[in-house]
Every structure is written in C-alpha cells, then in structure tokens.
Amino acid sequence: xxGHNYEKYNNWDTIAAxxxxxxxxxxxxxxxxxxxxxxxxxxxYLLKVGKSGSSKNAVxxxxxxxxxxxxxxxxxQWFVKEAVNKYGTDNEITSLxxxxxxxxxxxxxxxxxxxxxxxxxxxxxxxxxxxNSNCIGTDPNRNFDAxxxxxxxxxxxCSDTYCGSVPESEKETKALADFIRSKxxxxxxxxxxxxxxxxLLFPYxxxxxxxxxxAELNSISKAAVNQLASLxxxxxTYGSGAATIYLAAGGSDDWAYDLGVKYSFTFELRDTxxxxxxxxxxQIKATCEETFLAVKYIANHVLNNP
Amino acid sequence: AEPxxxxxxxxxxxxxxxxxxxxxxxxxxxxxxxxxxxxxxxTQIRPSLHVDFRVEFHQVLDVQSLLAxxxxxxxxxxxxxxxxxxxxxxxxxx
Lengths: 306, 94
Known about the structure:
With about 300 residues, chain A is α/β, with parallel strands linked by helices. In chain A, about 35% of the residues lie in helices and about 15% in strands. Chain A starts with 11 loop residues before the first helix and ends with a helix. Classes of the chains: A alpha/beta (about 300), B alpha+beta (about 90). Chains A and B meet through loops of A and strand 2 and helix 3 of B.
C-alpha cells in the first residue's frame, strides 16, 4: 500500500489499502473479509491470518476501540506483518499459524480514528449521532452487554464514557459482537488492544467478583508480562480489571468472557504517562516487538490448552 | 468545524491522597472542561490512584491556581500538547 509504514502512524485510507495488499500478497496465509460498515459507511475489514486449509481454533484480536489510542492499530498491523514474515522460518510462529487462525480487526472505531486525523486528535468515541442531544458519539468500550451502563459508564451522551442508547447500539460494536457470536465455537481467545498505562487485564471489570478462571488467567497474565518485559524491561501490571484499575461496565473483554471465550484479555500499551496518547512513532517498533511476545505467549497457551 | 489545535494545552497528573482530595478533583471537573486520560472518567477517581487529565489553554491558569490553593501537588506531564503531537511524527521517513 502506497505510503504504508509499520513504524509510522498510518491513516485509515492507508490501513484499508494495506489490508488489501497484505491479503493479495499472502493468499495462503491472509484473507480479508468485511464484517460490517461503520456509522459513516466505511467498510470494517477483518483479516484472517493462518495457514489456509482445515478449520482451526481461533484467536480474535481487535485494535482501535478508542480513536485517539493510535499505538493500538499500529500493533495490529505489526502483528500481521510479523506473522507473515516469520511463517516458515520461525518454528513457533509457523506452528501457531498452522494450528490456529487469528482474526485481526485492525481498527474497530474507524470513524473516530479518521476524525482524530482530520479534526480532533484527542477524540475517543464513535461518531454516531445521539438522539435528543447535540453531542456526538458513544464509548465503544462501554457499549457491550456486560453490566451495561452500570458502574464506570455514563448515560450522558456528552460524556466520553457514554454507554449508548442500548447495548451494541453502535454499528461497529454490533458488527464485532455478531462476528464473534457467529464463530463462537472456534474462537478460544479474545484480545483487545488499548493504550495507555502498561497493563494486562482480564475479566471482570464490571463487577468486583472473580471469574471461575481467575487463577489461570492471572497465571497467564503474569507469564505474558514477563515475556513482554524480557525484551526492553517494560513493566506491566496485571490482574482483573476491577481490582487492578477500576470498575467499568460494558467492556468487550467482559462481554466475550461471559459469552464463553475463556481467554479474554485487554492490553493497555505504552506508556505510563510521559507521552500518553501522543506516543512518538520512534516507539512503535519497540512497543510492538514486546507486545508481540506477550500475545505469542497467550496464543501458545490457547494452542496447548484447547 | 476547524480542526482542534492544542497550543498551550497541558496534561496534569495528581494523586489524591484521600476522599477530600478526590472530591476536590471531582468539583474541579464539574467547573472546568477536563479531558480525563486516566482513569477514563471522573467517577473512577479514588484515593492513591493517579489521575491524568488534559486542560485547554484558557483554563490552565485557573486549574493551576485552584490546585495550588488546595495545596495539592501536581505534575505537568505534557507542557504543550500541540508540540507533543508534532513530535509524535518523529519518523523522518514520512
């Protein structure tokens, strides 16, 4: 794709063109489909990455829930590049792609992402119009049916954490949820990539109680953040969302877990505040490299614990 | 609308020590346009949890003054957000 660069922030048009080109260049490993359209009518492209052939268990990963978290879509692109480039030369990656499919949604909140490139770099929500309000947008990560609009969410359309009029009111969250529901039997892990604050979180966030899988998810998180830190010594905290940061209802990881996707995690990538949402491009490579190690660890766990 | 620019906008960090300071931050947010970076919203603020928030240029002095009056320590994480956003594009291959 013209102008695309894995170590730069790419605008939506460039990312969309990249999804087409990486699929065209790697037909045995990558295919592109469309799971819906956004409020403003943009296509929501999904990449399926894995050795083509028989149906396999899958890991679903999305990026770009919150428009201003630019490092997140950068990671999804990086992940696909690494998977494609290392297939056939790296035994671990080859095994993962031979035995698992990875569904990658490079940008969930595409309209919001476009808006951060054109009008307001600090925009967070979707760009849908709200009834009886002049305020625009819903927080997609408060819009899922998991304790929807209770704690840590707002019913005020002007709030940055507005939960929407009903669960999955947003075309983007509905498309994502519909896809996961349609592949529920094969999707064994759900990963959602956010920024910032360097955390690896797992359910629950909408309530303080622990999941029945808490011990295992905690153990995986501990090992995954150790893997992540092994490269550049970047320190991540980990734990259930409610206990580690705060109660927040309507999040996609809680929703996926309650649907039955046991291995459900939220990454909050670099940094811890020096740059916040303005992480320089010069940190994309290191951030993605270290995150890749953690994702790879989780994927291996999923593969070995079907 | 014209694209939003961030000249002179600052990002602050405060760590409320107790409920009184939490309430102060909440009152600050109710009287000022504050963009919470961490946590996501004012309802999630609690003692000992750091709070990062962006303040628009025309309210920066007021916020600094109110924090000082209250005797709350604060850190300026980003002094001029517009400059930080320009530096974000530091890959010269562009």
